[in-house]
Amino acid sequence: MNENGQYEYMYLDHYFTEEGRHPFFIRVDGMLAGFALIREIGTNENNDIIYSLAEFFVMKKYRRQGVGQHAAVEVFDLFCGEWKVAQIAANKPAQIFWRKTIESYTKSNYQEITEEDWAGPIQTFSSRRLK
Fold first, then answer.
1. How much is the pLDDT for 7?
2. What was the pLDDT predicted at 16?
């Protein structure tokens, strides 16, 4: 967020105009609590869509209340397919949150990988198997 309380993201407009991008607001009791930006990044060998959780943000006052975990599960359930959830190497709290959330969601049926073009861990899993 910038000093005006606005979240600056270069591709935000694309989520409202391009196919394969899905923006969501996270609300608690009608109040804006955060957002999730989902991208379709391709398909796997079974022709399942691969989704990327491009951005996920919950305001501090709503953290540690289950808001983020609930929102993540809603999004994973909404988009059945393969998922990649990446965190920046320096963001240790995000890594802890996503490992815990994805481990619970998948009943430990996920992998953690690294990719050459990303500096940090990436959890991969299928939400299709969970239906």
1. 57
2. 75
Residue 128 CA to residue 125 CA, distance in Å, equals: 9
Classify 5 in phi/psi space as left (phi over 0), alpha (psi -120 to 50) or beta: left
Instruction: Give me the pLDDT at residue 90, please.
Output: 95
Query: From start to end of the chain, where are the E strands?
Result: 21-28, 31-43, 49-58, 82-86, 111-115, 118-126
Ranges of the chain with pLDDT below 50: none
**Who's near 3: CB < 8 A, 6+ residues apart?**
none
Helical spans, DSSP H, in the chain? 67-78, 92-106
Largest interatomic CA distance in the chain: 45
Please choose, from the candidates 97, 98, 93, the residue with its C-alpha nearest in 3D space to the C-alpha of residue 110. Answer: 98
122, β-bridge pairs: 86, 113
Q: What is the pLDDT of residue 9?
A: 63
